[in-house]
Amino acid sequence: MLIFYIVVLLFFITFHANALPSRPPVRSECDHSFNYTKDSKFESNLNTVFNNLIEHTDETRFNISVDGQSPDRIYGLLQCIGDATADQCYICSENATTALRQNCGNAVGGKFWFDTCYLRYANYSFIGEMDTSELYDYNVNNVSNPDIFNAALQSLLANLSAEAANEPERKRYASGTTAVSFFPKIYALVQCTRDISNDNCTACLSTAMNYIFEHYPRSKGARGLLGNCIVRYETYSFFNSIVEAPAPVANTRPAQSTPSKNSTHIIQSETSSNKIPLILGVAGGLFLMLMVICVIACGRRLKYAIFQRLHEVNEQAEEYTVMNEDRQIVFTMETLLAATENFHDDNKLGEGGFGPVYKGTLSDGKEIAVKKLCLKSRQGKKEFLNEVKLVTKIQHRNLVNLLGCCTEGLEKLLVYEYLPNKSLDKILFDPEKRNQLDWQKRYNIIVGIARGLLYLHQDSRLRIIHRDIKASNILLDEKLDPKVADFGLARLFPEDESHVSTRVAGTYGYMAPEYAMQGQLSVKADVYSFGVLLLEVVTGRKNTDYNLSPEMQMLLEWAWRSYEHGNIEQMIDRAIIETCDEEQALRCIVVGLLCTQADSSLRPPMSTITLMISSHSVTLPDPTKPAFVSSVTQTTSSGSGLSHASVTAHSSVSSASSHILSNADASITELVPR
Known about the structure:
This protein is of the alpha+beta class. The protein is built from 19 helices and 19 strands. Helices cover about 40% and strands about 15% of the residues. Strands 2-3-5-4-1-12 form a six-stranded antiparallel β-sheet, covered by helices on one side.
């Protein structure tokens, strides 16, 4: 028995010796845009700033120092990790200033990250400003069930992020742990620099977390070091320099999306002391101990293996069910990587609010467009696949065809048909290419978009509100016929997912007022966006253009003033004036104003809009003032040349609406609580 305890003790000593942390990794980034000279005023000011940062760091482990006059003025910032003691902060700040001098030499700016502190200096004021520089490293070991692990990790980091951004003592720091079934604990910490606002702190942490989940979805540990914040998680304790059984960490590399030419990234490690005699001395005891551990752990491992296998079989069965019903709906990641050449930048078609889009070519020669969804939907794989299956069955000549999807790990990708002429905005707002769009082509585009929206709102098997109608979401085929894109995203994402805020999805300038300000979503939100787009197509102008004179910068305000003064002919794009059917174009302008009325109940439904645009026999009501337009003294129009349209100044809401709105309008309006 005594021998047994000795063996156990030796095993513990050996294990603990191997678990001792190596010297913390060091990261540096130097600004060599130009260099200061030795013994200059700049160097003297820099030394003063460094001394102030070290000696006068406050109880929150944070300090800012500024010294000197331009052009030798120096700005410095020091922030220690939230759980560091005063002594630890002092020692780390001394080491950081020494390391910065050694690594950055006489550079005019630099940053240095230790595990305990962050130091930065520059010859310009960066205090309170967002810094987009990013560095990441990750654990080379992977978790066996990333879905369960990442669900717990996302919840932990989200809670810590909210806590840090609103921390009352303004340390901007939070750390914690969470337990995962059949996994070791997850340890995580987040921290922002104290000089930025709460909103910027949240944005910085969100950037780091999104990158980590996108690029290291299976890793047992990862760390994001940004200019204004840090995010780190591991499966061992690392708080306050306490490390338990650390896993090996891969070489640090800068974020692929924001490379820095002037950055240096250093990883220093101390070789462990010579443990070979100790290891050999307990080799026999270690073998016996491992046998005991295996027996004890066998039951737990077997239970976990069975659970994991059942989960994998269940997922495979769900995916197989969908694939078996329609073999074209699910693409493998291997197929899409080959088609897009590993999502090479040369194949990137663009990037919208929901993620980048890449051109790809399948093995059979078919061209596709692949959208990588950057937002993490809360749907499970089964729900996402079934959702895509429904949307792929929505077929219309004026809607982009969704071919299928790919769901592997945390990745969710949508595969669309490829359209060679890209989006409408690339032609309409290009000074040279816009001549390709004569009036007839523009009119066909307007009618096509209207028909596509009518199908989504009323005729498809799924009732879909697009929420983001704009020129960049209208794609053109080889004949320049329009196809509405991204129409499935409103259904594929939960209501609180968005690329504008946590509650409203869309693009400012195209969003209806009741939706943008109150979150009231209905088909009338799409009608409003369509009205703005219609005016853009006829006028050739973006809805907001600050290069123009103040009275013309906002398209809606300019259009309304022109209408009130009876000058709507001047709104027609000069590039199409010679080929234009003026009466048809003026009708479209009035319809655009009807669609953008502030009162959503006055906006006509898409069924009526398509009739207004295509038929000259329908009398148009007088539009009321659009949303987001300042008050203008009303004047009576002298006529606009519309033989079948009433374009006199409106007298009341009721008279305007009585011309065209009916009970049918209310039947297709549906308010969705947000």
